[in-house]
Amino acid sequence: MRVLGNYALVYLLDGGGRYVDANGVSRAVRTGDLILLFPELAHGYGPEGASSWTEFYLVFDGPVFDLWKAQRLLDPARPIRHLEPIDHWLRRFQSVLGAPRRPGLGPALLEVCRLQLVLGEALLGGAGSPVRPEDASWVSQACALLESDLDREVDMHELARSLGVSYDGFRKKFARIVGVPPLRYRSARIIDRACELMQRGVLTDKQISEQLGFRDEFYFSRRFKQITGRSPRDFRRNLPRVDRTPE
User: Fold this and answer.
1) Residue 100: which CATH number?
2) Contact status, residue 227 vs residue 191, Cβ threshold 8 Å
3) Are 224 and 194 in contact (CB under 8 A)?
4) pTM above the 0.70 mark?
5) pLDDT digits (tens, 9 = 90+) for 101-137
6) Most buried residue among 9, 10, 12, 77 by CB atoms closer than 10 A?
């Protein structure tokens, strides 16, 4: 076993093996399992015997995750969660690192905000049983529709009909597979978009709130803080200053 000194997540894309740690946890792991690693907690994991696996690996750190650990949202006693469909969750984890890195605190802060959103979804909504192939295809289509046209209001009842179900059936099925209701999922994607617009440094909060369909700037600020844990002002304060030459 080893001590990493940081938080990390390991998402198994293929294969299986075993995870052990100094708390006495010893568990078989399989495709779709998310392994959470904690600072100062000695651990070991990997395929057993002649087997192998494929993984997505991400190291992270910061006081916000220490707070999550203190509140048991990140819980060393529960280091393994199961997340399916795999294609969906891999895209979500990859989206944390979607923007090209530039000097300064801004890009890193944006990545932390994205990681909070994705990890929060995983910790609060991780499923415990495999998803059927037909459900995986259905939810991929649903996520694509929820992530489209973020600058305009979407009729959720019409969206549900396009997926061949009633709105109530859509809401229950999506929440069962993904772990969060469709409206909450779309709200998180909208805040992702707001973070990207802030990073560009062109639009004011008022302009962003209008573009993304919020009823006013104050409601936008409240929703932004609910989802990211910080206000738009705090987020902007840590972005690198961009000097623009008038055209």
Assistant:
1) 1.10.10.60
2) yes
3) yes
4) no
5) 444 444 455 677 678 778 887 886 654 455 566 676 7
6) 12
